[in-house]
Amino acid sequence: MIADLNMPRLSGRDLLKQLHVSGRTLATIIISGMIETEVHEELRRHGASLVLRKPITMGELLAAVGEVARKRRPVATA
User: Using an 8 Å Cβ cutoff, are 3 and 30 in contact?
Assistant: First the structure.
């Protein structure tokens, strides 16, 4: 899932908290124009896979999605 930190009705921070409390594990990328260190750490504690600072290019976003997908892909065992 890709979400902005500041969204109408439900912020990216609140969305992550709801997912965390519900026990759901979902790869999540949060993007924002301004991310303070404390907020970044809080987002990671609540399950954000990556936190990106805007502006980002489509290439950077695609690379981030690929990185998260590789981290979540189960490792095949022989």
Answer: yes
